[in-house]
Specification:
InterPro entries: SPOR-like_dom (IPR007730), SPOR-like_sf (IPR036680). The protein is an alpha+beta fold and about 150 residues long. The protein has two domains: about 60 residues, no CATH class; about 80 residues, Sporulation related repeat (Alpha-Beta Plaits, 2-Layer Sandwich). It has four helices and four strands; from the N terminus they run ααβαββαβ. The protein has a four-stranded antiparallel sheet. A hairpin with a 2-residue loop joins strand 2 and strand 3. The longest helix has about 30 residues. It is elongated, with a radius of gyration of 23 Å. The termini are far apart.
Length: about 150
């Protein structure tokens, strides 16, 4: 029984390692491919680098969430914080109906955030638009932005 389990685990390990290596090799092969009217690129490196890149590519493909930024409009923890957060959200939607607000509760704080951006620089134009109506707003780092939400 132990031999069977060991063999299955070993096969799975080598299968994952091979797929990671293939992903890394595919990436580097795509970089080196020639296009009409283009130049030549030759990459000389240890195969371990391709394996690490493949592992990174596979990890990114599994995780559909990234680190990014949103604009925080409200942060409160008083007795009326939930009601105030809902009012801020409604006010935002009345002024900017195309934006997607998030009302987030992380004890003891209620937050209202808007936008999904990869970087603070991408968030800056929205920040400038919101600043006149929400003078206390500011960009905040967020670590769970779905890739599908990015503009």
């Amino acid at each position: 029984m132990f031999k069977i389990v060991f063999t299955v685990v070993l096969c799975l390990f080598f299968g994952v390692a091979t797929s990671q290596e293939n992903a890394g090799l595919t990436f580097f092969n795509d970089l080196q491919s020639q296009s009409p009217g283009g130049g030549n690129l030759t990459i000389v490196q240890d195969t371990g680098i391709a394996n690490l890149v493949g592992m990174h590519i596979n990890a990114n493909n599994r995780s559909k969430l990234i680190d990014g930024f949103r604009i925080q409009l409200y942060l409160g923890s008083n007795n009326n914080a939930k009601k105030e957060a809902t009012q801020v959200k409604a006010h935002l939607l009345s002024l900017f109906p195309d934006e997607r607000p998030y009302v987030v509760y992380e004890a003891p704080f209620w937050r209202v955030q808007v936008g999904d951006f990869r970087s603070k620089n991408e968030a800056f134009p929205l920040y400038k638009k919101l600043k006149s109506e929400f003078p206390a707003c500011y960009p905040v780092p967020v670590n769970n932005i779905p890739l599908s939400n990015l503009k």
